[in-house]
Amino acid sequence: MAAAALMAAEPASVKNVVVYQQEGRFAGWPANHGAWSWGNEIVVGFESGVFKVNKGIHAIDYSQKEEHLLARSKDGGETWKIEKPLSLLPPPGGKMAGVPLPDGGKPAVELKEPINFKNKDFAMTFRMFDHNIGPSHFFYSYDRGKSWKGPFHMPTFGAKGVMTRTDYIVDGPRTMTAFITAALENSREGEVFCIRTTDGGVTWKKIGVVSTPTKGFSIMPSSLRLSDKVILSAIRRMEGVGDDSRENFIELMRSDDNGATWKLVSRVTPMKTGNSGNPPAMVRLKDGRLVVTYGHRAEPYSIRARVSGDEGKTWGDEIILRADGGDRDLGYPRTLVRPDGKLVTIYYYNYGRDKERFIGATIWEPSVSR
Fold it and tell me: Which H or E run contains 180?
């Protein structure tokens, strides 16, 4: 009923489920870790820390250790079990997303043995220490995330630092196109560029700059391939200085030469995505339509989506997946398409500023007419 009152566009069906919720804990940022699927088996990564209300946006106790967890569903996102693979621990020392790292991680090393990106049970996650300057590293799995090899160093490509989140396209057994954020000259985040490996991740090459801000940042891409030459990337953007003039939005970029050059297609969000903005999660439906999901960090605090039937040139009305959030500390979604065509959008959420943050999922499908 809340969705119908807010917008004319409604999904054909919506079901909300809890992925992970624990009293006294902050759980967040699935977009940073990644989500993977093999039919109806879905795995998503996220962070869990001690819940603490701060002056800033994130209600996490930055003085306490965090956990890096996985949630696994074998029924298309209906039910979930939590896992904590020790092999996914980050390198020792430093901080990740501002939180002290857990003990027990191995030092990051150079990858020597090529990865088989076409392994039927393959998954990969890109991670970082600091959201402004990195450094970054990656892990990979051949058993659907039950165990991981790594961490392995990610090069900086001549930038002051790179801050990787998980966004990649498998192009072949040894070829992968990935999208990462590089630090600007002021050592702050960032601009997005496209990289590629053709030797299974042993070496990487910078292919092209996807999005560069004027005054602000371009970060957190969500990308997909339309053809052997055409790639789309949805980008979280912030432009302007000061709370009154700053704009947070999502833009769609397109490359027609396999990542070398990029041009703006459209602004995906019709208005600000709320205070601090929110990253996109973009997928392509079986009928070719594009769907972008994102968190809205202004009242009504919500998880939203937009659909395009013309490769992102134009977008339908905002679809409200849920609007019962109690604070702007939410979003960072990952979205996957189930074999039956329904979407599973996974995000972090809350019911109030003084309530714990939890991982939720919405199983839904856009109406056929949109």
Answer: strand 176-183
Q: What is the DSSP letter of 88?
A: G
Residue among 322, 321, 324, 320 nearest 355 (CA): 324
Q: For strands 136-141 and 162-163, give the pairing.
A: unpaired
Whether the per-residue pLDDT at 97 is higher than 70: the answer is no
> Is 13 within 8 Å of 321 (Cβ atoms)?
no
Residues 6+ apart with CB under 8 A from 349: 303, 322, 325, 330, 357, 358, 359, 360
Model confidence pTM above 0.90: yes
The span from the CA of 363 to the CA of 65, in Å, is 32
Cis peptide before 279 (omega within 30 of 0): no
In the chain, domain spans: 2-366
Three-state secondary structure of 203-235: CCEEEEEEECCCCEEEEEEEEEECCCCCEEEEE
Backbone φ, ψ for residue 362 (5° rounding):
-120, 125
Average pLDDT (199-226) is 96
Range scoring the smallest mean pLDDT among 51-65, 94-108, 211-225: 94-108
CATH number of the domain located at residue range(s) 2-366 in this protein: 2.120.10.10
* First-to-last C-alpha distance (Å) of the chain: 20
